[in-house]
Specification:
Layout: E1 13-17, H1 22-37, E2 45-49, H2 55-68, H3 75-84, E3 85-89, H4 95-104, E4 111-115, H5 122-131, E5 139-143, H6 150-161, E6 169-172, H7 179-189, E7 203-211, H8 220-223, H9 227-245, H10 253-266, E8 275-280, E9 298-304, E10 314-320, E11 327-334, E12 351-357, E13 361-369, E14 376-384, H11 385-388, H12 395-405, H13 414-429, E15 434-437, H14 446-450
Helix pairs in contact: 1-2, 1-3, 1-12, 6-13, 9-10, 9-13, 10-13
Catalytic activity: D-glucose 6-phosphate + NADP(+) = 6-phospho-D-glucono-1,5-lactone + NADPH + H(+)
InterPro entries: G6P_DH, G6P_DH_AS, G6P_DH_C, G6P_DH_NAD-bd, NAD(P)-bd_dom_sf
Enzyme class: oxidoreductase
Length: about 475
Amino acid sequence: MPVQPQNPAPADVLVVFGITGDLAKKMTFRSLYRLERRKLLDCPIVGVALDEWSVDTLREHARAAIEATGEPVDDDVFARFAARLSMVSGDFADPATYDKVAAAISGRVNPVFYLEIPPFLFGRVVDGLATAGLTENARVVVEKPFGHDLSSAKELNDQLSAHLQEWQIYRIDHFLGKEPAMDIRYIRFSNSIIEPLWNRDRIEAVQITMAENFGVEDRGHFYDPVGALRDVVQNHLLQLIGLIASEPSSGGPDGFRDKRVDLFKCIRPADPSHYVRGQYAGYLDVDGVAPGSQTETFAALKLYIDNWRWCGVPFFIRAGKSLPVRATEIRVIFKRPPPLPFLEPVKEQNQLIFRIDPAAGVDLVLQAKESGADAPRAVNLSLVFSDEMADAPEPYERLLGDAMRGDSSQFIREDGVEETWRVVEPLLESPPPVEIYQPGSWGPAGADKLVAGYPAWHQPWLPATK
């Protein structure tokens, strides 16, 4: 797998295709503004879109978008940010558009092109940039989905690699830009007490939960062809397994990415008999959802990793919409202590919980003596990162900053994309029927049966209410 050059040059211009779109409105402007506030933005920004916007319209839209996210806007910071913005209008299918882009970035030699556009346009835009002579030193940032199955992922990569080398392609999965996801590496490898426990001899199971307490709402046209497995499991949650289970490695952008891919190669193809699909009642009434749709809004599955460290340890994943709470966590459940004549059996096993969202933190569940009784009880040694640490960069802020610096550590390589699609491919080919579940529940009953013989699904560790 080709690796990026050592000490890549920082970007001298950022070109955002689709700057008038929804993702830019919700994420990009806010992230770039925050980089400006931290004084980490030092290049012009050129927006490209079909809309015939003036630069003043773009700047007004940018401020309104930032304010709509709830981000406080400092006039001096925004003035610096707005001065970086310019606009190119044109059809992505028109070669003249790329000539206008070339003119707008004339003299710049290390551009970053951010394609926050539908994936079916990636190949067209990269071809237009290459024809205009703009890709030689470029880095190109692309959004998921990276295909809808293994074959389409390979086809998409063929389109990109026709003009770009692998080191030039930065595939965003915003979960890898979350500070608590990056904290996993530091907690694992900076604390020597953890390493002796991080194996099949000490760990009984790993549970990963991504719960959303809202439905598809007005996104039926987008969501119905996708479903939970493609939307969050194949990408976000398998990447979390890569962080929690892969081995330490050398530094550099590819050091940890190499090991994540090695880990993915060890994951057994998912077994459809260990896969539960659910659909919340009322989903079929959502605008844009096909009549009688069998798309899952809930997915639960069991995976195994066939290597020395993890052989025999089940990794359980559940993800769904219209569940009771919004929470994303990884819960490492340790084996029970042996029965001893002088202690009552413990009711709850030791656990190490990594909370990704909300209020990122880490919690260690231990056993202590129940006050006034000869019995054990669970105690929590918890840390909420925001209570102890400075304001952290947001995922897109971190990832866009990394892309402009030329740091691809938190981006996904093509071999990683293909391996995660390989893992879930059997579930796409032979999906079980969906089970209906009620909004506000924890999904279909089959999800509870999936963990039979292991600790039941735990309620997520949630922030304390004030």
